[in-house]
Amino acid sequence: MSSYSYNRSQYDPSGIKSKVNHHEFLEVRDGADEYAAFDLERFKGDLMDKFIRDTEDIANENDRIKTDAITRIEEYERNNLNDRDFELGEGNMAFQRRTISEKVTGANKEFDIATKESASEKRRLREDMADLEDALRKVRDQLAETELENQNFQTIIDAFEDIQNQQRSAEMNAVRTVNTDLKDQIAKLEHELNFAGGATDTLNMKFGLEEKYSSAKGDFENFISEAEEGKKRIEDELANLRHKISQKKNENNILHKNVNDNESQINKLNDEITRLSKDIEQLKRKNEDNIRSLEGDRSRAEDDLIDANRKAADLKHEIAKLKILVEKTRNEIDYLTSEKDKARGQGYQRKIDEFNNVITESERRTKKLKDELGTLNNEWKDKVSRTSKLASSSIGRGEGEEVAKRIRLLTTELNNKNRELEDLRSQKSALEREVADDGSGLDEKINRQRDQLDELNRKYLASLEEKNGINEELTEQVRKLLDLNFVIQKNSEQIAIAKQEIEFLRKEIEQKSKLVGDLEYEIEQRRNLIIDLREEIAEKNLIVDELEQPRDEIETIEMLIREKDEIIRELEAQVRNKSKYN
User: Fold this and answer.
1) Nearest CA to 223 among 567, 579, 577, 574?
2) Which keywords does UniProt give here (predicted)?
3) Mean pLDDT throughout 85-110?
4) Is 326 exposed, middle or buried, given 0-12, 13-18 or 19+ CB atoms closer than 10 A?
């Protein structure tokens, strides 16, 4: 086996060809073609249609919320018709309704602003999708450039194969020439030794050997010049390959940097999505807790309001009773005035005057109570205007129950005092009739009956004072109850507003969930793009490694050239020796 066969390069161009036309590269190219065939305009149209449908659904939901709010307001007005017993008036109800309508309108404006912000966010996402499309087109261009470079590499590989075949053919021809020349020389030397010809034959043989030597020398010089030209051409091609390899390495470094940047951006997006998801969950839980709390407060407030309305009706009935009692007291005063002329004695007249003063004081207090009850409507309006400025107010259920319990207790005491007054009034009337009937009786009996009448008058006056005190306390409790009613009404308004805000927040949560889904889809697309870029970088690194193998081939060729130089020098030495011998 020759040294060329033993030391020839193990470079196999078919290996690079199989690595260049890798199945994964074909799949990536098919994916790029499929992306190029994607109808982007149709996708944008479908996306716009979906956005319009979502906008219409949101508008319909907004109209439904407005209708529901108006219906609840009307229902609230129907359930609170008993408030008119306190002379609230239509103007106050219209003011409340207008206030609630303004709040609903403000909430609708905020909802429109949120919808516009959502549309802006969707436009931004569409712009991001366009940027991703540009990035994919650039990747497709890079794939086309890579395919063109692979074709150039295949051309270079074919040129290497041609050069190797030519070198092997030239080497084989040179070896055959040298072998033939040596055989001819050996044959002629044997013929010369066997026959020992004359000088003419020696000259002819020398001339033939010189001619063959010149021919062999010319062939070897041509072979050497062709080898030098091939070597120079290979060195130039290797320099170009090294330049291309350095460019590919720079491109790979840029791609690595882009991949790292994309990974960092994806990590940031993942962190942002995680944070948004946590915020949405917390907001959702908070809103659900607020809804449950507001529902409970609304139920308790409605119960307290019903109790307050019922108690207010009872109080109105008690006021009617007080009016009847006042009229009856006036009749009694008239009767006592007529009886005053009949009475004799300064002491009795003084007692009657004291009794009249007490009756007048009672009438004055009754009138004062009536005036206070008449001004409750104005006080109620003032308290509503003050409490409407509060951001929020809470009603203690125990406070409402305590006020209701106190009102019931005072009502019971008032009824007891009324019964006592009725009893005293009956006894007093009976004694007065006895005095009137027995005017001509004994003085002792008259004095005794007058003492009894005085005692009854004192009890009657004490009972009237206690009744007035109870009336004052009852009035105070009624004021407290009305204050609680105002706070309940305010809380009902706050509950309606909170419900509407919760509906808006629920819509906002749904929109953010959609945005989170779109961002997750975008992250998945970028992750797939990074995987494709990594595969492309790995393939290009393999190509670079394979292109560096011709360096070993050049070293092998240089070693073969040195071996051929040694053979030529040996042949020249043999020729010189033969020339000297001849």
Assistant:
1) 567
2) Coiled coil
3) 58
4) middle
